[in-house]
Amino acid sequence: MIEPVVNDWGLELVDASLRRGRPPWRLCVTLDTPQGDGRVPVDRCADVSREIGTQLDAADAIPQAYHLEVSSPGLDRVLAREKDFAAACGAEVNLSTRQPIDGRRHFRGRLVRFDGRLLHLEVDGSAFDIAFDDVAKANSIYSFTPDDFARQTKAR
User: Fold this and answer.
1) What is the largest CA-CA distance in the chain?
2) pLDDT tens column, 33-62
3) End-to-end CA distance of the chain
């Protein structure tokens, strides 16, 4: 129900997760532009949120009180789709696997390459190959530079 609404707004669905527990539940929806640049304006997120909420409520799709959060990927962007991993090659990532690999489920390191369905990670000098389907959760890790903190000067 969510993806057609997102597509109608000219955006792409990156991730949708329903966090259950004590009410209210939380439905988190992450959107991106077709270019994958993460530049989804706040007002566009609000518009999409209203429409998703209306659709879900009309269909009584979530049988519990819930909060709907719609956002863009942000600095530590969620890596959920194959194209997200392909774009993150060369960057530092943090990921968890569904099952242990060499006795561990959590990895933080550089994504060397992604070829089809296999991620090649370098973690503390060791190489790990992780199947795309084995990834439970992943995020890129933004590396700040001095330019991020430079003062912007106005053009005269």
Assistant:
1) 59
2) 998 878 899 999 999 999 999 999 999 999
3) 49
Asked if 32 and 11 touch (Cβ cutoff 8 Å), the reply is: yes
Going by C-beta distance under 8 Å and a sequence separation of 6 or more, which residues neighbour residue 84? 14, 36, 77, 78
Please count the CA atoms within 13 angstroms of the CA of 75 that sit on its side-chain side.
5
Domains by residue range for the chain, with CATH: 2-71 (3.30.300.70), 82-140 (2.30.30.180)
Report how far apart, in Å, the C-alpha atoms of 17 and of each of 13, 38, 140, 153 are: 11, 18, 18, 41
Q: Are 14 and 32 in contact (CB under 8 A)?
A: yes
Contact 61, 1 (CB under 8 A): yes
What is the Cα–Cα distance from 51 to 46, expressed in whole angstroms? Answer: 9
Q: What burial class does residue 6 get, using C-beta atoms within 10 Å of its C-beta: 0-12 exposed, 13-18 middle, 19+ buried?
A: buried
Query: How far is 128 from 120, CA to CA, in rounded Å?
Result: 6
| Whole-number Å distance between alpha carbons of 92 and 38 | 17
Which residues on adjacent β-strands are paired with residue 113? 120
The predicted model gives 106-115 an average pLDDT of 96
